[in-house]
Write a structure and sequence with these properties.
- The chain is an alpha/beta fold and 298 residues long.
- It folds into 2 domains: 181 residues, Rossmann fold; 108 residues, Glycogen Phosphorylase B (Rossmann fold, 3-Layer(aba) Sandwich), CATH 3.40.50.
- It is 37% helix and 15% strand.
- A 7-stranded parallel sheet has the order 3-2-1-4-5-6-7, with helices on both faces. Strands 10-9-8-11 form a 4-stranded parallel sheet, sandwiched between helices.
- Helix 5 links the parallel strand 4 and strand 5.
- Helix 3 runs antiparallel to helix 4.
């Protein structure tokens, strides 16, 4: 059954389970940059406003107009193991723990008949969705490589209750083996943003401070055109290549004119958008969408 045929038999008001991750709250805390969690927050609220019965599976202390459920066992904020693994630079092990944690949180969506559809903003739901008859929509927020293209196509071709949407035309072109039901662009709540006609500052970079996002290019542009630059984002610098990138491409150029502001609360970040004349977004990777772009234009 394709999605269009299935939709004909769906009730106008759906019982929807929405999930992204339990690694942080919905919306994310002020010390975390996590665009998919913001998208999950906006979408759950909007669907609830439209009268659907929405259940958000999320970390404790999450906020939403939807009903929120969580398991005490999956409360990562209280899990010292993750912090210890990260401190010991065992990133791969910590990711496995977080992945199993998310799949455990998702069990509630697939072990009952309470939902008409599950909307998962993570690929970790795929094995569970394959074992369930409940339709699942997967919104994958990262770029596709050759492996994920083939892996997702396997699920799409063998489990007819699993559907995928892309975030942009470019996103869908990255995965030609997957039959996407539709391109659905990311969105934001425009009521949370106000336009400033007279910005006081010059250049701004917003994003994770990693090579793929191009903060070093933003610095070179600022130096070339001799304008002040503020960089906002999480410093991803575990031992190794990313620490070397920070030391050699970012930190050595910081000055009065090139300032690293660290992670800023979402409300504060909006003020930086309002006060900047130019946003620099010199991405090096195949961005699936880029939420920063529409936030800055809002």
């Amino acid at each position: 059954m394709n999605m269009s045929n299935y939709s004909k038999h769906m009730p106008k008001k759906l019982k929807i389970a929405i999930f992204c991750t339990t690694t942080d709250t919905v919306p994310p805390s002020s010390k975390v940059i996590h665009a998919p969690l913001w998208l999950t927050y906006y979408l759950a609220n909007l669907l609830a406003e439209k009268g659907h019965e929405v259940t958000l599976i999320a970390a404790p202390k999450s906020k939403s107009r939807a009903k929120i459920i969580n398991k005490k066992i999956t409360d990562l904020k209280r899990n010292k193991t993750i912090k210890e693994l990260i401190q010991r630079n065992l990133i791969g092990t910590s990711r496995r723990v977080m992945a199993l944690n998310d799949q455990t949180a998702l069990l509630d969506a697939y072990t009952s008949d309470a939902f008409d559809i599950v909307h998962a903003h993570t690929e970790l739901s795929l094995p569970l969705a394959a074992l369930s008859k409940i339709p699942t929509l997967i919104t994958y927020h990262s770029s596709y490589d050759e492996f994920y293209n083939k892996l997702f196509a396997y699920y799409k071709n063998n489990f007819k209750q699993i559907y995928f949407n892309s975030l942009s035309n470019r996103h869908s072109h990255q995965a030609p083996l997957i039959s996407f039901i539709q391109t659905v662009h990311n969105g934001i709540d425009l009521k949370n943003f106000s336009f400033n006609k007279k910005p006081k500052k010059d250049l701004l970079f917003v994003g994770r401070i990693i090579e793929e996002k191009g903060p070093d290019t933003a610095i070179m542009v600022a130096k070339k055109i001799k304008l002040p630059l503020e960089l906002i984002g999480e410093k991803f610098a575990p031992k190794g290549q990313r620490e070397e990138f920070w030391n050699n491409k970012i930190q050595k150029y910081l000055s009065n004119n090139i300032q690293y502001k660290g992670i800023q609360p979402h409300k504060k970040t909006k003020q930086y958008y309002q006060n900047a004349k130019i946003l620099l977004f010199p991405d090096r990777w195949k961005e699936a969408f880029g939420l920063v772009m529409i936030e800055s234009m809002a």
